[in-house]
Amino acid sequence: MPVRPGAPLAAITAPVPGSECVQGVVAFYPPVDLPLLAKVPYNGIPGESADSAVGRLLGCAMASCTQATLVSAAILARVDAKDPPMLLIHGDADTAVPIDQSRRLDAALKAAGVPSALMVIPGANHVLPGLAAPKQREILDRVWRFLDQQSGR
Asked: Which of 2, 144, 8, 26 lies closest to 85, judged by CA?
């Protein structure tokens, strides 16, 4: 189930056809607090080089970016009550983006009054490799239910 690291950002900015507002966001293992993520020595941080997806977004490797650059790209710093409902999906064994990133976003969204759900995938790493077909189906079913709910279907 490959998903690009930039998918959460793209989803946030992509309006639903027929609406000028985003109806909902599904984010897989989102890096949301870049200042914190840059400080934590973690195996395979997605922005560890300027050539990584996060590095290209920032224009620098996370470890060498200025604090201002990291804060400006941190989704967590931008949460407010106008955000769309979110479904966050994260493996609890993620070695690239700690699950705490999704837990913190889920808590911030709820504190702002935004509907949010966090689906934790036990034992799953980043990009959810090696999941059995039934678990993949469970994740996809949850995503489709969320999208149907948000679109009013």
From this structure: 26
